[in-house]
Amino acid sequence: MPEVWKINVDAAFWEKESAGAWGFIVRDDRSVAVMAGAGRLAVVKDALCAEAHACVAALQAAASHGMQKIVLESDSQTLVKALQSTEYDLAAGGVLFREAKFLLATMFSSTSIVHAYRSCNSVAHELARFGRVRDPDHPIVWMHRLPSFVNGLLSRGSTAG
């Protein structure tokens, strides 16, 4: 089993609809993608809350598959700051930040939260866009055999970083 799993998360937000979507990709220590997920948020307050939903979904999936040591990457500097401090705990998305921090503290033996440039987060971004067409009650998580469109994103080298 890999020593450290790298999880990239991203979200999309449509202000006019107050809706969003999320996506994530998990890679092993050889940068091989082993898990991906996507889902739709029927109602979400803002882009930061959508990012927090993406984080929680990815952490729940990783924990349920026994991943212990993780590096969580997001292109949202605000989300990274919210997960590394208590500064945003009373904000609109505070309950989501606290849930993510609880998962990080209780479900993993080692965690690191890192800001990733958007160019290094494009597969998670595309998965979030894919999530827009999902039924909000039926998010999807793929393991090992990822769908061809995800493999296509990976083959374009869009997860470097």
Shape: globular
- The number of E-state strands comes to 6
CATH homolog superfamily: Ribonuclease H-like superfamily/Ribonuclease H
Structural class per helix/strand content? alpha/beta
The CATH topology is Nucleotidyltransferase, domain 5
Q: Output mean pLDDT.
A: 92
Terminal CA distance reads: 21 Å
Number of domains: 1
Task: Report the major sheet.
Answer: 6 strands, mixed
Assembly state of the chains shown: single chain
* Pattern of helices and strands: EEEHEHHEHEH
Total helix count?
A: 5
Structure description:
The protein has a single domain (5-155), classed as Nucleotidyltransferase, domain 5 (2-Layer Sandwich), CATH 3.30.420.10. The chain contains five helices and six strands, in the order E-E-E-H-E-H-H-E-H-E-H. The chain has helices at residues 47-64, 77-84, 94-107, 122-131, 148-155, and strands spanning 5-14, 19-27, 33-41, 69-74, 110-115, 140-143. It has a six-stranded mixed β-sheet with strand order 5-4-1-2-3-6. The model has no long low-confidence stretch (mean pLDDT 92).
